[in-house]
Design a protein that fits this description.
The protein has 376 residues and is mainly β. It is built from five helices and 25 strands.
């Protein structure tokens, strides 16, 4: 591992735009410019603190986190505009990060657990998005990774924690329906998972619906052999994004992105219990605090169009997209501001947070760094 103060031009140059996301750029009416290597280099700035915010740089587009409980390790996504969008491994003790190369991931297809998975993933073409790690048992766990490279899916990786650092083995997948654009995933104690869809990719009016806060997207269960089924009570949400569940799997919390809210659903019984609280932001990722007494909710304080313009651009960083992070009591759903609204130097477009010691580690869908902010 290594700590990097300035992002390398060679690594920055690997970022570009996929054909599908260029189509979205055209749909929302924004231009797509791919800067030269010199222009990219001009965006690369020193990784020095900005006020109370410190950074770990050379950490690319870390849209989501998956901490490994009881260890110093945290997996991070890389929501790259085109492959590769490798997983990243953070050492929280040394505040360093390394890319997990596809060659470092073994493949052992578990067809019994994932009978409907058509084939192993081409790891060289993965684009990682939402993450979740099952509770470890016997030194092993399953890392679920939302993927947009070659297929929209949730990919499953066995995590071996018995060595010096976690080792990954790809074991299976759940390919999303063609009307489902997976964003975030949460594992269930029965071996299934619950997955959000930010929008229907076949709907030509999806961006307009998001901008107006109209119903768009979905929240589904997935179980092996049963496939995808809607979560009762999830109808009518606008842009379901981040998702977490209680340890018993009975209560689901959703960051409703273009709905500017957090929704809690308890699907059991004759009628699901549904409660929502407004956040005033494009609510993105949700994460439990250690011990589960608080929920961290992050998101962008900007318009849908501005955020999608950043997402579809070739920018290394989007400081023009301010963000903030709340703490939320899971029972009362009362919100407390933990990271005030704003950007921090080059870091904008924040998506969420996890707690590491007395700090919050902050993620972003478009940045060459993650932020470290003191808890007060």
């Amino acid at each position: 591992m290594h700590t990097v103060a300035v992002r390398s031009a060679g690594t920055a140059a690997r970022r570009g735009l996929s054909g599908a996301w260029c189509a979205l750029a055209a749909l929302i009416g924004i231009g797509v410019l791919v800067p030269s290597g010199a222009a990219r280099a001009a965006n690369e700035v020193a990784c020095t603190p900005v006020g109370e915010m410190h950074f770990v740089c050379d950490a690319y587009n870390v849209e989501d986190w998956a901490p490994v409980p009881g260890t110093k390790w945290v997996f991070g996504a890389d929501l790259a505009a085109k492959p590769p969008g490798n997983l990243q491994l953070f050492d929280t003790a040394t505040r360093t990060v390394r890319q997990i190369a596809p060659s470092q991931i073994a493949v052992k297809f578990d067809k019994q657990r994932f009978p409907d998975c058509p084939s192993p993933l081409d790891l060289d073409k993965m684009i990682s998005h939402g993450l979740d790690l099952t509770p470890p048992k016997g030194g092993r766990a399953t890392l679920y990774v939302v993927n947009h490279g070659t297929r929209d899916s949730v990919e499953a990786f066995d995590v071996d924690q018995t060595g010096a650092e976690p080792k990954l083995t790809w074991v299976g997948c759940a390919v999303a329906p063609h009307t489902f654009w997976p964003d975030a995933v949460a594992s269930l104690p029965d071996g299934g998972m619950v997955v959000t869809s930010l929008w229907d990719p076949t709907d030509p009016n999806r961006v307009q619906k998001l901008s107006k806060g109209e119903p768009v997207g979905a929240l589904d269960y997935w179980h092996a052999g049963k496939g995808w089924t809607p979560v009762p009570g999830s109808e009518g949400m606008s842009g379901p994004n981040g998702v977490i569940v209680t340890p018993d799997g009975k209560t689901i919390y959703i960051g409703v992105w273009s709905g500017h809210s957090i929704t809690r659903i308890t699907p059991g019984g004759e009628k699901p219990e549904v409660k929502s609280v407004p956040t005033g932001i494009l609510t993105d990722n949700l994460r439990w605090s250690p011990g589960g007494k608080e929920i961290y909710a992050g998101g962008q304080a900007a318009t849908v169009k501005a955020v999608l313009a950043c997402f579809e651009s070739s920018k290394v960083n989007c400081p023009e997209i301010p963000f903030m992070v709340y703490g939320m009591d899971p029972e009362t759903m009362k919100l407390t501001v933990l990271v005030p609204k704003g950007s921090h130097g080059e870091m904008g477009a924040g998506t969420g947070a996890i707690r590491v010691g007395d700090t919050l580690w902050l993620s972003s869908f478009r940045a060459d760094r993650i932020g470290i902010y003191p808890l007060k």
